[in-house]
Amino acid sequence: MSILVVGSTALDSVETPFGKVRDILGGSAVYFSIAAGYFANINLVACVGDDFPQEHIDFLTNRNVDIRGLQRKDGKTFRWEGRYDSNLNEAHTLDTQLNVFEEFKPVIPEEYKSCEYVFLANIDPELQLDVLKQVKSPKLVACDTMNFWLENKPDVVRKAVEKVDVLIINETEARQFTSECNLKKAAKKIISMGPNTLIVKLGEHGALMFRESSIFFAPGYPLENILDPTGAGDSFAGGFMGYLAKTDNLKERYLRQAVIFGSVMASFNIEDFSLNRMRDLPYEDIEFRYKKFKELTDFKDL
Amino acid sequence: MSILVVGSTALDSVETPFGKVRDILGGSAVYFSIAAGYFANINLVACVGDDFPQEHIDFLTNRNVDIRGLQRKDGKTFRWEGRYDSNLNEAHTLDTQLNVFEEFKPVIPEEYKSCEYVFLANIDPELQLDVLKQVKSPKLVACDTMNFWLENKPDVVRKAVEKVDVLIINETEARQFTSECNLKKAAKKIISMGPNTLIVKLGEHGALMFRESSIFFAPGYPLENILDPTGAGDSFAGGFMGYLAKTDNLKERYLRQAVIFGSVMASFNIEDFSLNRMRDLPYEDIEFRYKKFKELTDFKDL
User: CA gyration radius for chain B?
Assistant: First the structure.
């Protein structure tokens, strides 16, 4: 099965205690696509400026990513500059230049419209709603958002959330969105809005998947060398959606496995800057780390 | 098998967003004893003042706790006053009155000295070392500590840690103790000091057990109603040590199960103020929640 993803394509400048890089490949749709591309064909809708290097385009097309929906515009590509302190848990945005992304209007190519799996990466919720109007009854729609939209367009976020099957956000956002400190209560509120599944990302501690009648906890993978957490959430979503599209089965069993594959992809991604860790990563390593997650959480019944 | 525990006995005053209580039963050794008492006989060494209510003594003796090592002194019992904000993750100490605890010198009764399992709750590391001089080659010694000792007596904490098998501390303390932000690196440093096992408590997100050649991640149990997190860490240690003493087996398999029992006891403890949740809690409920932990983390192999 193919996945449609709509999100950002960016040139990031990132500083962490372990290094500093300028104008490297980034953006939510890119992290998602490369991670999900291990499992399924990806249909990308995003936009880049005329300064976006051809090598990045080649990287995407070489990795199962269809770029017929990638808009190329006159002007500069979206740029984000951020810094992480030693705990690596929080990004401090130093500069954001929207550039061509400011006028981004997602146009879903005809060939993409019947995609069964749709991921709305973190973009303006108005655009997320606009995408949903263009697609034909997909089997699964997941979306992400961020504190900026929760603060500035809470009602529009709400409208988008009501229309998706899976919401993937972080702990702070779940609390902010529902004005509820307790995560289990926050999850109930969100599930009552429409989604049948809520995934709450806990940073280095893992992720929780809440459904109507079950909760699943996936641990964070303990790593000794984390270079750059940028894109962890989108890599997670990529592994999660990718595995679901691959199996094309939405039973609890597969959703749980998908959460682990999401955690696996996020754990690889943060081991290097930009998408570097995923450039030469063989699929066997992904399955090997999946097994490591099993070892990490395994304990005997009574 | 019996467990020797040395720690504090206190009358706590606690305020959380869900209520306020004054002079209620508390103290690290008490939380530990009541939790561990579900699994094993407990030998308690602690001290109380002449104001310590007889009903608390009765509660302990009714729950497998031998109090021949409980010193009763003229003066007031140790008092701690704290407040938790809405996220419940951090205790703000409002007042500490050491009272009789200031002069506490642990004296291990002859009958306790051959205990195979020893837990050194969070007390002055000099006293922890002093206890270790009094006991006869136990099979397993675990200890806790806190930021206050890490700041004020780091060398003494280090000496105590070198002598124990299991160190149980929280995430912030692990980082502080090793000056290492990365938890896996911090764990390596601590294990190189002497303990064969390090348990890092992650608050509501669970706990990580690091050993020479394995890592185990136990989730936090998602609860809708958390009234008071006081004593969660000591209840965890109680469930962990209690189960180990019960099975009297230190193989990885049992250590992992013990971490889950620790998490189970902590999850019950925080559902009410003081030790109230453990007053009428039947053992079957503990096993039932253990099974819930299994459901919470279970996923299929590839």
Answer: 18
pTM: 0.96
Q: What residue of A is the nearest CA neighbor of B17? A: A181
Q: Do A290 and B300 touch (CB under 8 A)?
A: no
ipTM over 0.90: yes
- Structural domain span for residue B54: 2-297
Look-up: residue for tokens 């957490």?
A229
Asked if residue B302 is part of any domain, the answer here is no
Considering chain B, what percentage of its residues have pLDDT values greater than 70? 100
pLDDT grade for B86, boundaries at 50, 70 and 90: confident
* Rounded average pLDDT over A184-206: 97
Q: What distance in Å separates the CA atoms of residue A42 and residue A39, rounded to the nearest whole number?
A: 9
A290 in any annotated domain: yes
> In terms of DSSP bridges, do strands B79-84 and A10-16 run parallel, antiparallel, or are they unpaired?
unpaired
Q: At A177, which CATH number?
A: 3.40.1190.20
Residues of B with CB under 8 A from a CB of A: 86-88, 181-185, 187, 202, 204-206, 208, 210, 214-220, 222-226, 253, 256-257, 259-260, 287, 290-291, 294-302
Q: Given an 8 Å threshold on Cβ–Cβ distance, is A299 in contact with B214?
A: no
The verdict on a CB contact (< 8 Å) between B223 and A301 is no
A29 touches A44 (CB < 8 A): yes
How many A-B residue pairs are in contact by the CB < 8 A criterion? Answer: 103
Segment A86-117, tens digit of pLDDT: 888 888 999 999 999 999 999 999 999 999 99
Residue A215 pairs in a beta bridge with: A210
Does residue B168 lie in a domain region?
A: yes
Q: What is the pLDDT of residues A264-296, one digit of tens each?
A: 999 999 999 999 999 999 999 999 999 999 999
Chain A residues bordering chain B (beta-carbon distance below 8 Å): 86-88, 181-185, 187-188, 202, 204-206, 208, 210, 214-220, 222-226, 253, 256-257, 259-260, 287, 290-291, 294-302
Strands (DSSP E) contained in chain A are: 2-6, 10-16, 19-26, 41-48, 65-72, 79-84, 91-97, 117-120, 140-143, 166-170, 197-201, 206-211, 214-219
Q: How many domains does chain B have?
A: 1
Give backbone dihedrals phi and psi of A120, rounded to 5 degrees, phi first: -95, 100
Q: Which of B254, B28, B249 is nearest to B124 (CA)?
A: B28
**Which of B202, B218, B299 comes nearest A257 by C-beta?**
B299
B21 and B32 Cβ atoms separated by less than 8 Å? no
Q: Smallest Cα–Cα separation from B184: which of B147, B214, B151, B142?
A: B214
With CB atoms and an 8 Å threshold, state whether B299 touches A202. no
pLDDT class of A119 with cuts at 50, 70, 90: very high
